[in-house]
Amino acid sequence: MIVPFASRPSPKLVFGAGALNDLPAYVREVGGLAVYLVSDRGIARTGYVDRARGLLKAAGIPVSCFTDARENPTETDAATCRDQALGNPFDCLVALGGGSSLDTARACNFLLSNGGAMRDYHGYGKAAKPMLPMIAIPTTAGTGSETQSYALISRDDTHEKMACGDPKARARIAILDPDLTATLPRSTAILSGLDALSHALESAVCTKRNAVSSIYSEAAFRHLAGAVSRIFAGQGTADDRGHMQLGAAFAGLAIENSMLGGAHASANPLTARHGVVHGHAVSHMLPHVMRYNSADAGAGAIYARYAELLRESGESSVPLIEWVSGIVKQCALPALDGSTMDLALLAEDATRQWTGKFNPRPLQAAEFLSLYRRAFDPHVSA
Ligand SMILES: [Fe+2]
Known about the structure:
Elements: E1 12-15, H1 23-29, E2 35-38, H2 41-46, H3 48-58, E3 63-66, H4 75-85, E4 92-97, H5 99-114, E5 123-124, E6 134-138, E7 150-154, E8 161-165, E9 173-176, H6 186-205, H7 211-225, H8 228-232, H9 238-256, H10 262-274, H11 278-293, H12 297-312, H13 320-330, H14 343-351, H15 365-376
Parallel strand pairs: 1-9, 2-3, 2-4, 4-6, 5-8, 6-9
Antiparallel strand pairs: 7-8
The structure holds fe (ii) ion.
């Protein structure tokens, strides 16, 4: 039986090496006459901010820049970005950077266009007034924020991560230029790539999966699976970087049209309570969640089909979960010490994660605790 669904539209996707050079034309395409460019200090150091600013100025488009976007942006960060924008008239936002820069720009758009504080937009569709057009230019291949309509912003008081979404917050155009990821430090390429792979695999089996999201999940998996080994080994080609960017963007569209699952639900408390970087946390939990999910007939069949894709492409002939574990092990991320963690408390936190409600097998505190025990027992191999 075909599951009923309502699909969400994609931004216009522009893919190609050097696509950033056409930024002025895309600003004009969305009706922009002046730009507010949001990025972070790391990206500013690479010279990409100056390059984007130079392109816009040369085309006669005034541009003001905010380069203080921070990891895991908070309500205060969003307000700071808004406050700096107030002195500079503009009618188009350009977000250049990783997921945090894109989230900050999107959050700033909510505040500028609709007022209030970010907690007013927690959920979906709470912005009543029109929002400014935004162009997203990812410099990592990971979050897929460029194809989504949500800003992930932490509450100042409780540090709870709020997903603030609205159809109007979606970028009008996403520029996917694989040249921009050529300078990524290997550690960032690994952590963002593992996140993208987790997005493809979690959205593929979640209970909200449907005819549209499944197309994006599978396409994302194909692009990512063929490139991750070389990218993670620091031996990626320009073509591999392109596949990673497409994989991340398609995985973003898969989430936009469905949901995630237990790996993200169990990873988020590790980040919130122990500061484990998102890509590290989610990839640590993913093989254990997949093993748990494989008892579900639908999820098991999808895993088997993805394993077949690996076999057909000549990538691997081992079962999917084994391949995922191997990829995570290849990254040699620092070991996480579960003995210093209150696993029962983490399990309680995990039950409050919205995304866990869409895991193919139900997850309550007892199941999360069992997953954490497996993930942190040195005698259990993922
Ligand atoms: Fe993620």
